[in-house]
């Protein structure tokens, strides 16, 4: 790698060694440079062995840790090289008598490694990385040919792969290469970088260059990268295949492992290769001047390191590309940067005689494209493996870097001192506030304001002169046990019982208070404890003191809270003055990783600077997005997804994102017009091949259609037609048809009801109705008419009608106010119960009741017919403006939806108990969605949401386990069946579980399902299984909450109200008998 020679001249080996030191520091958490260097030497450049050495219990630790930690900052060190200094890392001293045999062997090994580097251009460090990179792009050899074969995972219909209008082109995942897609798309959408790549031309003397592996790798890669960028510009395909560029990567990095490549590591290597390729071209074109490398100009900046080591000051300049930042322990990007810019104790920087050591970093030159690596992995010493850090880290869309510039260091130091002082003061205020909010000396503490209020309430209670147990002792049972008493206060204190298993109650209704019977509280016993003796004078003094103290405490608490808020605001605005917002950087791309340290999936959010919107690039899928979605997936702390790399661009450098213009016409160049002629021809050829695919598909479809037409003309024996299926929606007001009721049945029904009324007056109304198999509505009406027979006989039909309708409404109102067990939902039996519980307008309820009394089927005897005629007359008297018929229809439609939702739930639960999870899932999905819509209108409009959510979630988990077991079998048919289950059932359902962030159990279930499939990434498997897994995983790991379309709702059988209530009661009773751990 080449940089400006008058600033830095590190050797290639030293630079690669520093890269590996940074990686070792990130993986192991060890910051001692000498320990890391020794481990790298002992492992002979093998990164894996170095990690093993550092994590072993007997690892050697140098004693002078503090001195060696800062030795990298001293002049002459390999990392910090003074201006104009030279560092020769190729010289190995083997003459020292103090070296033992091991050290001599290490030195000889390093000398041999450096010799190999000079000959081949590949360092031992690169070879160590290669063992990780090559396997992450392992793929089928057949898919890497020069031609464009159809990969198994592509849709056979080319129209499914056709680009829509000017939608951005995606990149196909060709075997754990989501990291490749994320990085390449981020760079491609940087227009200046795109122009540099597209307009790159190989050096004229390329054939005369030294034939080392490095140069024969970079130039072919640049050629394939140009082709790939050209396809991303002008292809007619929805996505393109990057296999040819990936093949060069695979050939350059050899490994036998199968794991995904690290994004930051790949970005490092990619920029190295591009820099080398452009350097060859730059050196060819220079005319006596020092060549400028556009990659260095675009991605590399410089910072000044100033510090003190044991009282001696130093100052060095260093070049940087991607800037690493630690995430753990910080809440936002500025906190990470502040920590990265200051190492050690910086107080000594401003004093002459201090022996403490520390250093500050100040940017002297920022690159136009500034990339931050977020270190979200750390090595767990106890478990012996890396772990991902899921902490939340916020970052802004516009980042002002003025406070980190060397030219602003004096004002920044003043502001940092002020912030430090404010934070110290803030800590004191927060400690004082905590004493007010958590008052007391015991394990339980309470706000002081509440303590004073409780004391005031106690003192103000009515005094009692007897012991609180006296009355209970007098009335205690002979057994010595006290009767259980439940008061409203104890109920409020206990609260609802919690359980992992949702309640099977359809809704949570307010408690209906009933008169106390056996457990009546003695009238003289106070509800709360009270003083035994207190005089009016004592009470007056005490109340005055408590009131005054409470007011003082409230004022003190408010003052502390306001002071804390003011300090927070002051700190937030510390760098908001005009002088500190002159260096704006706009967020261009966010590379996101979801999963764990050893497995996961990458995608990118990239800002469209011309359309002013965010786009999500997830392999072949390119969709519009929002800042809110980016926050959810990138900040971390919520799911296993979080940002791993941030790319900012200088907002004042317009050329970075500026479109190209035609020099003659001044028109903006778009699409193919932006390509050089050779690439334009290349893309046209590829588009012709794709158009030929479309034509062949159209021809094939036309031939099939012609064959089907000829076959349809051949006469065939007519097949028996199936019996028609009755698929009408269930009627909740169903009445027996008048023609279906014989006179004998009518007489028997009336006689049975009259007999029940005369013989069992004391029995409940439901017991009487169950004696006759009529609908619940008809039963209630006939029973009400029977009870009103005395009024009917004495005062006539109209009086009988009013008496009957009043009795029926009173009965339904009582049912609506009851709190029945889960298996007995009165709403299913009577629409009016549903209306009453949901506070329907009185006019709606009245008209519904009138329609039930005026039904033509109510003609069992003369009394029923006369009351029916009165009801019909009342209906005709209702004026159009008295009842809003649209509102009336809406209420009845809601009730029909409620019954339909009940049937979805009931059938789904029945399938679930039969372990038919695939059938159960669709019913439960529609039950949940319909129920959620109902509950949005009122708490009693639907069923218990947690119950439906629980069984929907359980269905998905069991299907996921079944699909995973099929995949693990290895049999082609079973593997395909398992992936069909995942693609057609589970993946479309995941957004339904993720859309509500409050449903923590659903989110945990989704993570469990994803982790199950991600665990296969590190396992050895057949190549065809690996291909299928890598094609499927991006769909499973997509964090989008966009609801995909589902099939039409499943057919529901037609149930009478009796059948519906009976089956619903049966299934709910079976759930209540299921053990808690079985749910």
Automatic annotation (TrEMBL):
Residues 169-651 form the USP domain. One of its GO terms (molecular function) is hydrolase activity. Gene3D superfamilies: Cysteine proteinases, DNA helicase RuvA subunit, C-terminal domain. It is found in: Nucleus. PANTHER family: UBIQUITIN CARBOXYL-TERMINAL HYDROLASE (PTHR24006), UBIQUITIN CARBOXYL-TERMINAL HYDROLASE 25 (PTHR24006:SF666). This is ubiquitinyl hydrolase 1. PROSITE patterns: UIM, USP_1, USP_2, USP_3. Residues 496-507 have a biased composition (Low complexity). Residues 464-508 are annotated as: Disordered. It is an enzyme of class 3 (hydrolase). It catalyses: Thiol-dependent hydrolysis of ester, thioester, amide, peptide and isopeptide bonds formed by the C-terminal Gly of ubiquitin (a 76-residue protein attached to proteins as an intracellular targeting signal). InterPro entries: Papain-like_cys_pep_sf (IPR038765), Peptidase_C19 (IPR050164), Peptidase_C19_UCH (IPR001394), UBA-like_sf (IPR009060), UBA_8 (IPR054109), UIM_dom (IPR003903), USP (IPR028889), USP25/28_UIM (IPR054108). Residues 476-495 have a biased composition (Polar residues). Keywords: Coiled coil, Hydrolase, Isopeptide bond, Nucleus, Phosphoprotein, Protease, Thiol protease, Ubl conjugation, Ubl conjugation pathway. SMART domains: UIM. Residues 680-707 form a coiled coil. CDD domains: Peptidase_C19I, UBA_UBP25, USP25_C. Its EC number is 3.4.19.12.
């Amino acid at each position: 790698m080449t940089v400006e020679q008058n600033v830095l001249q590190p050797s290639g080996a030293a630079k690669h060694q520093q890269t590996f030191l940074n990686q070792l520091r990130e993986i192991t958490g060890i910051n001692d440079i000498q320990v890391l260097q020794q481990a790298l030497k002992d492992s002979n450049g093998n990164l894996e062995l170095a990690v093993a050495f550092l994590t072993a219990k007997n690892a050697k630790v140098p004693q002078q840790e503090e001195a060696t930690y800062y030795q990298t900052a001293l002049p002459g060190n390999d990392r910090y090289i003074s201006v104009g200094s030279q560092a020769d890392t190729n010289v190995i001293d083997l003459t020292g008598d103090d070296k033992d045999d091991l050290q001599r062997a290490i030195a000889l090994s390093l000398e041999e490694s450096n010799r190999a580097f000079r000959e081949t251009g590949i360092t031992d460090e690169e070879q160590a990385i290669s063992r990780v990179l090559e396997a992450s792009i392992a793929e089928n050899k057949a898919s890497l040919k020069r031609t464009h074969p159809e990969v198994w995972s592509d849709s056979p219909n080319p129209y499914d792969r056709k680009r829509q209008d000017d939608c951005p082109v995606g990149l196909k995942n060709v075997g754990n290469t989501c990291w490749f897609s994320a990085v390449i798309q981020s760079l491609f959408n940087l227009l200046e970088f795109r122009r540099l790549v597209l307009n790159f031309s190989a050096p004229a003397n390329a054939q005369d260059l030294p034939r080392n592996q490095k140069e024969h790798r970079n130039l072919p890669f640049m050629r394939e990268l140009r082709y790939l960028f050209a396809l991303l510009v002008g292809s007619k395909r929805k996505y393109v295949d990057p296999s040819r560029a990936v093949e060069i990567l695979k050939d350059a990095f050899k490994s036998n492992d199968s794991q995904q490549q690290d994004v930051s590591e790949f970005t490092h290597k990619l920029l190295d290769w591009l820099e080398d390729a452009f350097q060859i071209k730059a050196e060819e074109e220079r005319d006596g001047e020092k060549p400028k490398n556009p990659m260095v100009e675009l991605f590399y900046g410089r910072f000044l390191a100033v510090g003190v080591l044991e009282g001696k000051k130093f100052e060095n300049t260093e070049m940087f590309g991607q800037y690493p930042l630690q995430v753990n322990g910080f809440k936002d990007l500025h906190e990470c940067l502040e920590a990265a810019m200051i190492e050690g104790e910086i107080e000594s920087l401003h004093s002459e005689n201090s022996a403490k050591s520390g250093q500050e970093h100040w940017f002297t030159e920022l690159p136009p494209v500034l990339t931050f690596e977020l270190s979200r992995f750390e090595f767990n010493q106890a478990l012996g493996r890396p772990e991902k850090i899921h902490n939340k880290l916020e970052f802004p869309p516009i980042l002002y870097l003025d406070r980190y510039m060397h030219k602003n260091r004096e004002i920044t130091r003043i502001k940092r001192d002020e912030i430090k002082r404010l934070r110290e003061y803030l800590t004191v205020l927060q400690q004082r506030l905590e004493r007010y909010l958590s008052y007391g000396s015991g394990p339980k503490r309470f706000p002081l304001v509440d303590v004073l209020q409780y004391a005031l309430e106690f003192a103000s209670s009515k005094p009692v002169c007897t012991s609180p147990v006296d009355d209970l002792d007098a009335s205690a049972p002979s057994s010595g046990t006290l009767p259980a008493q439940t008061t409203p206060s104890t109920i409020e204190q206990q609260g609802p019982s919690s359980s992992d298993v949702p309640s099977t109650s359809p809704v949570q209704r307010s408690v209906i208070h009933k008169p106390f019977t056996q457990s009546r509280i003695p009238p003289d016993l106070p509800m709360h404890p009270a003083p035994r003796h207190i005089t009016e004078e004592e009470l007056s003094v005490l109340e005055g003191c408590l009131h005054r103290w409470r007011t003082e405490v409230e004022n003190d608490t408010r003052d502390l809270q306001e002071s804390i808020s003011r300090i927070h605001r002051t700190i937030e605005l510390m760098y908001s003055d005009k002088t500190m917002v002159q260096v704006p950087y706009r967020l261009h791309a966010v590379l996101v990783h979801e999963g764990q340290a050893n497995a996961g999936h990458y995608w990118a959010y990239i800002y469209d600077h011309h359309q002013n919107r965010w786009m999500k690039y997830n392999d072949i899928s390119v969709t519009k997005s929002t800042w809110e979605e980016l926050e959810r997936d990138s900040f971390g702390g919520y799911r296993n997804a979080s940002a791993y790399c941030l790319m900012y661009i200088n907002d004042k450098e317009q050329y970075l994102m500026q479109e190209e213009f035609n020099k003659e016409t001044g028109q903006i160049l778009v699409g193919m017009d932006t390509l050089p002629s050779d690439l334009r021809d290349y893309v046209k050829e590829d588009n012709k091949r794709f158009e030929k695919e479309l034509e062949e598909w159209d021809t094939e479809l036309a031939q099939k259609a012609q064959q089907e037409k000829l076959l349809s003309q051949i006469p065939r024996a007519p097949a028996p037609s199936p019996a028609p299926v009755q698929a009408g929606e269930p009627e909740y007001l169903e009445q027996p048809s008048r023609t279906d009721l014989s006179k004998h049945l009518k007489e028997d029904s009336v006689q049975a009801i009259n007999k029940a009324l005369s013989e069992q007056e004391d029995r409940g109304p439901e017991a009487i109705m169950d004696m006759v198999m009529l609908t619940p509505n008809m039963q209630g009406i006939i029973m009400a008419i029977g009870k009103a027979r005395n009024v009917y006989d004495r005062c006539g039909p109209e009086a009988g009608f009013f008496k009957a309708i009043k009795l029926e409404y009173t009965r339904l109102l009582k049912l609506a106010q009851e709190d029945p067990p889960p298996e007995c939902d009165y709403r299913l039996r009577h629409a009016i119960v549903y209306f009453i519980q949901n506070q329907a307008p009185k006019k709606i309820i009245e008209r519904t009741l009138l329609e039930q009394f005026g039904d033509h089927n109510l003609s069992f005897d003369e009394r029923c017919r006369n009351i029916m005629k009165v009801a019909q007359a009342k209906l005709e008297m209702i004026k159009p403006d008295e009842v809003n018929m649209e509102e009336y229809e809406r209420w009845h439609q809601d009730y029909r939806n409620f019954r339909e939702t009940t049937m979805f739930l009931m059938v789904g639960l029945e399938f679930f108990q039969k372990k038919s999870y695939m059938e159960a899932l669709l019913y439960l999905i529609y039950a949940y969605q319909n129920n959620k819509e109902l509950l949005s209108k009122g708490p009693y409009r639907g069923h218990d949401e947690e119950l439906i959510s629980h069984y929907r979630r359980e269905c998905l988990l069991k299907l996921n386990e079944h699909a995973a077991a099929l995949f693990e079998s290895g049999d082609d048919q079973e593997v395909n069946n398992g992936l069909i289950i995942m693609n057609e059932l589970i993946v479309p359902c995941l957004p339904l579980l993720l859309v509500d962030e409050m449903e923590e159990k659903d989110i945990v279930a989704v993570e469990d399902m994803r982790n199950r499939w991600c665990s296969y990434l590190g396992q050895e498997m057949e190549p065809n299984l690996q291909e299928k897994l890598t094609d499927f995983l991006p769909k499973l790991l997509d964090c989008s909450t966009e609801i995909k379309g589902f099939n039409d709702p499943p057919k529901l059988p037609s149930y009478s109200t009796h059948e519906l209530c009976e089956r619903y009661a049966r299934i709910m009773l079976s759930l209540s008998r299921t053990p808690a751990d079985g749910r």
